[in-house]
Amino acid sequence: MTGADVLAMTTLTLRVGVVAIALAFLPALGLGFWLARREFRGKAFVGALIALPMLLPPVAVGLGLLLLCGRRGPLHPLFQALGVELPFTWWAASVAAGLVGFPFFARACEQAFSEVEPRFEQLARSLGYTRGATFLRVTLPLARRGVLYGAVLAFTRGLGEFGATAVVAGIQPGRTETLALGIWSRIEQGDDAGALALCAASFSLALAATTLAEGWLRRAPRARGTPRP
Amino acid sequence: MSQSELALRGTAGAFRLDVEVAWTERVAVLFGPSGAGKTTLLEAILGLRRNMRGRVCVAGEWLEDSARGLFVPVEERGLGWVPQDPTLLPHLSVRGNLRFGQRRAGADGAPLLDRAIEVLELGELLDRRVDELSGGERRRVALARALASAPRAVLLDEPLAALDLPLRARVLPFLLRVRDELGLPMLYITHDPNEAMLIGDVAVVLSAGRVIARGAPREILWSQAVLPFAQALGVENVLEARAQGGTRVETSRGLKLVVPAELPAGAALRLGLRAEEILLAAEPLGLISARNVLAVTVASCEREAGQALVHLDTGAEPLVARVTAAAAEALSLARGAKIYAVIKAQSLRPL
Amino acid sequence: MQRVTTPGRMRQFAMGLGLALCGMAGAARAADAVLDIWAAASLREPVTLLARRFETQAKGRRVNLVFGASNALARQIQGGAPADVFLSADDLSVDRLQASGFVRPETRRVFASNELVVVAARELAVPLAVPEDLLRPEVKRIALASPDVPVGRYTREWLAARGLAEAVKGRAVVLDDARSTLESVDSGNADAGIVYRTDARIAKSARIAFTIPEREQPYIVYVGAVMVGGDQPELADAFLRVLVGQEGWAALQAAGFLPPPNGLPTSPETP
């Protein structure tokens, strides 16, 4: 395994992670906002459903994905319409990583939105902003710290994702072999040196990601309503 | 003059609102003690409370009519709201907050915004961050933001509450300037009778979710209906006066008083006089420290729970004094009684 | 003044619990002899059958079965995993263990062979009759086992010999072992795959498209041996004797295995 291989796997892992967050972004925002603002029966149940990918063993999540999105699965026509095959492709790796990170993301969003006082939103609406415009220009900017935190959490969780990815994407070198999968297959082959090299790459990637995120978090202002005069 | 009308019924938590009132004056004051439902009513006017049924018409514009199935959404009501808590957006600068308000006005908003900045003297604050502003500055920005949105009416929720006296003195002139120079219909909420008398052309008195009186502020606030909570509010006398040189002033109706400080002749001022600071005497008291001793006739004396509210006819401004019920007994205060009102110069406070 | 000590009652309880646990462990050990058999995934059906029968043949016998890819099993045994008997789908894995001294060489036997077949998913519309049919555009995904596991190595040997290696590479989906390779075709997520005949037989929906011609079949051997570190040497010998004997061959043949290239083996020597 050459340095170029390690770099390629790192780039693949990065791509899988970024797409995973992109996929999880809107659902996490939407669900987080809905849970933060609405009271309804069965809210606890919805919360439990969202937490499911976090509570289940990752391999079970992978199996669920395979059954749902595989060629004979009920969701397959949807993917066909989009022109995407899921099992054994890097899309599957992204979906798996996105799915396991989703509970963290959604919860963090819910927390962030619930800390935005409804007063701000009411004020914006009284000034003529529609619900959507209020969300984009008031709620989201005020919650961005928490949302960003959730994204980072989900991203790093997705970077290390193994079980679900292995089941639904398999370990396809060059296509779905992320750093986590690569470390496992090097161990399987008895290539300890290779496995360690990939561990180092994995560590560097995670460190870089969290350092960058910390930098962003520090710059985003704390928005906690107006302090008392 | 366009008509404003409110007829709303509904609940907000454990609180019941049942309001029916109309007025044509430009500047209305919604007056009442804490918990009367003023803010709830304001929120209903804004369209933030969907569970209220009824009619809302502000300055001739119909916003809500359950009978016709009309409910204009919040963002289309075109009202300028200045909430009790300034609620400035912390992620924007002052300029950002103002522009945020201006968006609704579009291109027409620019001159309006400039005017608001000028009237409220925000020029130096424009690039400051919200957390760098003082309480009074925040309120001015919140007001300017509401004005910048070219509202058809401005709704102010207790803008001077929770401000200490010096701060109130600083912010009040701005409010009055806005009232006088911009010509917009206003609905001003307050629990302070001073402000109510100062600011409004008409007062609507709210208590426990119902309108108990409506009319000219001066008259309303002395009425029987308002008496039950007059004590809680510290009813005061408010007098418009003009300085006559030295420490003498004359009120708009001709009452001559002595104030603590010397003023240039011709200066206009408003004076506040607390009801409990008027001493009543059955006989003149000879040489005493108080500079103002007025011969007055008792117009009415209303007793309530150990206190007596005494309306005095001075021949010019009416005054209200508060004494204990026992004292009222002792002095035999009844309609037509001729007594003396004793007022220290220091009790006349400029507003 | 009273001294503060662990209350006498609690100490008694702790000791009692400790003794009971030791007793239970010892009792388990004394009551049942457990034979650990580690075998290639493709041997699942016949070995399970033989193991259950073996258990019933004498009192106090239990067989613990571990199935997986032969190379992965070998590596774990090398790492110290407790195995009494190792049944591999190739000689390479046993060679490795033997070189490290884990194998009792006199017990080593080749006991079966297998052949590679090409399976097609139920939904595949085009015919797969000859190897070149694998290159048809409708065959979008071909399931192969990883080159580290025996069946994956055999598969690639054949593909290389046939000149199809490069062409298949772009469409290959790599799985961890023989059974998951079959499963991916069985579930329809791969259009075709290359597996052992014995695996193809138990497929639920995938069908055998064609058998690789005999002269092209790679040299497939199943090798069994008794491990040195095991704690049941007598039972291990006994089982291996069953496996290479008539009973064993009957089970293997019934599952579709082929006889070893050099004929059926002789029984291992009784020590």
Q: Can you tell me the residue ranges of chain C where pLDDT is under 50 for at least 5 consecutive residues?
A: none
Helix fraction of chain B by DSSP (H/I, runs of at least 4): 10-25%
The helix/strand series of chain B, from N terminus to C terminus, equals EEEHEEEEHHHEHEHEEHHEEEEEEEEHEE
Radius of gyration of chain B: 22 Å
Number of helices of chain C: 10
- Measured by DSSP, the beta-strand proportion of chain C falls in 15-25%
Rg over CA atoms of chain C: 23 Å
Work out the oligomeric state of the chains in this entry: heterotrimer
Poorly predicted parts of chain B: none
Derived structural class of chain B: alpha+beta
Query: Fraction of residues of chain C in helices?
Result: 40-55%
- Tell the overall outline of chain C: globular
Count of alpha and pi helical runs of chain B:
9
Number of strands of chain C: 10
N-to-C CA distance of chain C: 70 Å
Q: What is the number of beta strands of chain B?
A: 21
- Separation of the first and last Cα atoms of chain B: 30 Å
Could you explain how this protein is built, in words?
The complex is a heterotrimer of chains A (229), B (351) and C (271). Chain A is mainly alpha-helical and 229 residues long. Chain A is globular, with a radius of gyration of 20 Å. Chain A contains 10 helices and no strands. Mean pLDDT of chain A is 88; it is low at 225-229. Chain B has 351 residues and is α+β, with helices and mostly antiparallel strands. Chain B has helices at 38-46, 94-102, 109-119, 135-148, 165-182, 193-199, 217-221, 227-233, 325-330, and strands spanning 4-12, 15-23, 27-31, 53-58, 61-65, 70-71, 79-82, 153-157, 186-190, 202-207, 210-215, 236-245, 248-251, 256-258, 268-274, 279-281, 292-304, 307-313, 318-324, 338-343, 349-350. Chain C is 40% helix and 19% strand. Chain C has 10 helices and 10 strands. Chain C has helices at 8-31, 44-56, 70-78, 91-99, 150-162, 165-169, 178-186, 197-201, 233-244, 246-255; strands at residues 33-40, 61-68, 85-88, 109-112, 116-120, 142-145, 172-175, 192-196, 207-211, 222-226. The termini of chain C are far apart. Chains in contact: A-B, A-C. The A-B interface holds A 119-120, 122-131, 137-138, 141-142, 221, 223-227, 229 and B 43, 46, 48, 74-81, 83, 85-91, 100-101, 103-104, 130-131, 134-136, 138-139, 145-146, 149, 162-163.
